[in-house]
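Fold Annotation — chain and its backbone

Encoding — discrete vocabulary of local shapes
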Amino acid sequence: MIQYSLRCAQDHRFDSWFQSASAFDKLHAANMVTCAVCGSTEVEKELMAPRVNSGGEKPKAAPDTPLSAPASPAEQALKELRKKIEATSDYVGRDFAREARAMHSGEAPARSIWGETRGDEAKKLIEEGVPVAPLPFLPTRKSN
């Protein structure tokens, strides 16, 4: 595996891993290497310093932060959003489309809900004028 620092025509910079240098060249030639920010296929390799394992000092151990702790302010904001949604609305699971339609038509009392539905079903809800929005997280599945 090889990691490249990449830059798109819009000057977005990001890193990506490839199976080999020739794998990168093949994917790049087929316009399959895209910017992680804007999706542009005009991507070029950045100048990089090689990483060499000298066998010297080993890297320091990671801090004692649990893996479940948010890694960034954005991740923390998503965690807080999820907590608020779960506290202020009802999870209706896979009955989301049915419940949303029933509330929209007045057959069920209006309330805040969240749940799961297929993409085609979500599109139908929008076309019917039912106010829905995707959430930036998946429901937590509990197993026995």
In short: Residues 73-88 form the longest helix (16 residues). Residues 2-45 form one domain. The CA atoms of residues 25 and 33 lie 9 Å apart. The beta strands are 2-8, 13-18, 43-45, 90-93, 113-115.
